[in-house]
Amino acid sequence: MAALTRVSGSVGLISLLNPPVNALSAAVRQGIVDTVRRAVSDPQVKSVVICGQNGVFCGGADIKEFGGHMSGPPLVPIFNTIEAADKPVVAAIEGSALGGGLELALACHYRITQSKARLGLPEVSLGLLPAAGGTQRLPRLIGVPAALDLITTGRHLTGAEALKLGIVDQVTDQNTVEAAVKFALSIPSGCNICRLHLSERPGVMQRVKKSAHGAIAPVACVQAVQAAATLPFTQGMQREQELMATLFGSGQARALQYCFFSQRVVSKWSSPSGSRWDTSKPKPVTKVGVIGLGTMGRGITVALALAGLSVVAVETQQQQMMAAQHAVSGMLERTARRRGVSLVGDQIRYSVELEAVADVELVIEAVFEDMALKEKLFKQLSTLCKADTLLCSNTSSLDIDHLASQTHSPQLVVGMHFFAPAHVMKLLEVVYGPRSAPQAVATAMELGKRMGKVSVAVGNCSGFVGNRMLMPYVEEASFLVEEGASPEIVDRALEEFGFPMGVFRMSDLSGLDVGWKVRKARGLVEPGQMSRVRQGRRYSPLGDLLCEQGRFGQKTGRGWYLYDSAGSREAQPDPWLQSFLEEYRARQGLVSRRIDSQEVLERCLYALINEGFNILQEGIAAGPEDIDMIYVFGYGFPRHRGGPMFYASQVGLAQVLQRLEHYQQLHPDIPHLRPSSLLRRLVSSGSPRIQRWREIIRMPHSSL
Ligand code: NAD
Average model confidence (pLDDT) for the chain? Predict the structure, then answer.
């Protein structure tokens, strides 16, 4: 698992060998202990180089060991031994040095890296901290501010950036191991790790706490780095261990590790018809057509171009096309600069002729949300595109199967539902209809992956998975306001839970008119009417009444909140709204009552979760991981809570069921509070672990 050879006469070369990423498994750790001991005691060895086999230095801890009992030698004493060696030790970093891998490199006296290698301490994203000395050695090497940034965000660096920060001593484009051996031969004698003056930065803790939205790991990371700045090394190491012990057993670490694995689970998609990721081969795609260059089409074009695809972008008129071209160029440049990628010129061709997409392999339609317009477009595309071109729609709510029925080849139609801004947001819902070919699903999933998205395959239904679950959540928030809460009370509870924005601030940001239009299309809006029952169920006309007053949210300077001016982002409570609500309640005969944050969370979240169970029951999502990844990557559900379904499993399914029953008794006219039969089945099966839910879902059951 680690081999020692002698090269160039006096250099002991230790190679880690544990494909694919040389993870620090028990055997690798033992291998390091043995080879370091031999190298240090061999008089012919004057210096040591540590590298990884197969072009990768070390990907860090073996995450498979997390759940079980750790055996083998622990990392901290191994790294201390390396650091204390009286012969210079050089890390030769190729591929990646992540987590424990970078901590190993930090314990070495020098680091030589390949310019393209990726370095980072991503532990915080798993709810942990770098607990093998990373929080103590990195600030001593590069200072507190830079170390805090890397440790609290977990972001990756390239070798070139690492050189700028002082993490590594040399960057090479040549053979890294050879460069490291040459470097080792040039070291005269002895060595010392660089110790910089460390000082704490005031205000860091408040800043990190604010952006952590309740996550505890970033806060613990700051505490550990504070210890590095104020305590001697040994005491700092002790503090690091204590902080790690609290994080290790926490529910947040479990939730974050669940997210880590779930991202892989959702890429292994399956549908009720039996098509699967491993039996469906994606079609190669190099050229994509985007129709409609509004908010979404622009972002999609940028994301495609950044992924290296050539794009044919189509608008209706010259003027719209020019405006879009200008906007796309700016977005593309800014994003490429931020990500440090270089662009290949002329990747995007603009046109006002639909025929321009005649030779593409896949089309993504992003025109107005209007079924008649999309029907016409799909008919045209089906005639003018090549016979095997995939036709995809970015619709947020329209029936994919109906769109497919407009074409000659319904099997080639799928939904590709991006989220705004489409070049930034990580989520892509790939919506298959009953007639979609497995290859069409596989191709859309693969294209999403190439665009850097977390692609989740879901079935066709109104709102698909994300927006369908959002409906009861948003409705419940309005009902709470009718009953006595204010938008501030509801939003505060949800933000303290960990959402970056509560329902009402979010709704003001995206525009109240968006939902108004959807409700109008569903025949729910009755202008000027206050009735609270529509289509046989409870309805809150509050959002419609605000829209009738021209209150569309941030863009009009008022909505659920008041803003300084149209377009301003600073939400303030609006006294007008307060008196409007009082008058509304009085006219409805509603007696306002005090609503606490527990009720806000239970009613909004359990309604959302309950719809998630209905979706699982219907097979629209294949498993709870699919729903959770949709919510974490598309809807701001706090990652450290794992997603709505994981959160339900942490709360306890019996508890969720009991509270839903309680609220349903109080509000029998709200159908989405009626507990899902799958939730009942899971509870009566003893509330199994979330990883076992799929078995219960598949089990035949009586529908009584
Ligand atoms: P938008 O109004 O910003 O843009 C639509 C664009 O399509 C306009 O520029 C218009 O000129 C163009 N267009 C209309 N008819 C066309 C035609 N026949 N040929 C070429 N171009 C045409 O709309 P948007 O917000 O980008 O939404 C587009 C689609 O994406 C809708 O189906 C919407 O439901 C969906 N969607 C929107 C969001 C969002 O947050 N805005 C999120 C996910 C999905």
Answer: 94
